[in-house]
Amino acid sequence: KASETVGKVLKRGDIVIYESTVYPGVTEEECVPVLERVSGLKFNEDFYAGYSPERINPGDKEHTVAKILKITSGSTPETAEKVDKLYRSVITAGTHKAASIKVAEAAKVIENAQRDINIAFVNELAKIFNRLGIDTDEVLEAAGTKWNFLKFKPGLVGGHCIGVDPYYLAQKAQEAGYHPEIILAGRRLNDGMGEYVAHEVIKLMVKKDIPVKGAKILVLGITFKENCPDVRNTKVVDILHTLKDYDTNITIYDPWAEPAEVKHEYGWDSVKELNGVTDCDAIILAVSHNEFKSLDLNILCKEKAIIYDVKGVLPKELSDARL
Asked: Is 161 a residue of the active site?
């Protein structure tokens, strides 16, 4: 649709630059033919294409667009240079001119796939260490003293980048006749973490003789990441759906998320203020918003209650368990 819109106003000599994360080949094999069909112009004769993948970290006030090095590319060497020069004029961190549009597309999609796989690895470690009675954070802290150890933490992997983009590459790989084992294994593991957290909370409640059916559970946070209002593809809803199966009464508190958007996207009611919420049987810190770090959780819950810290930001003595 975007290509159709651009194609209607395309004129000779124009360069169309795409930024969306895609699998290798989308710009030239999927988008350009649409531009040609709608405009009636010929690619690399009448108009040209570029690709410069978006690099932005939602909610990050330090790593803003101009401060993040940008990959650029073009459909001809001359176009690539023009595109690179354009971005260099605004990106103070500099640019990297890729050899081709497909290389630039592939580079972007593996950035997110790499993070996804590494987080899946530590999520699996968290599951293993939980069974062994070992503190995952303490293990990662000890291992992190080695200079080349990659410091990832377990957690929910949602959002519109890391939780989605690996599927693009997997799809393209399968079209080429290759089944991507590691990429899809990482996706499966990460997609199951919300359900895992919910079941861990239920098990802890049973061990403390807290009746599960009708239990009051407070979930802190529903956005896909901390200090950010974005609820797209949030995996907190997986926790909610699983807890709902046990007939629990859930309150979702998130000062960042818009209740109307949460209701529209997922059908769940959420609140931006904690008015009158007390006597909780369980509290799940699902997103580490700054506001939650100073909350007095003890006044929100019963004396015999479960506090589960998904993000590992609460003092260890305050929580019953963490991911």
From this structure: yes
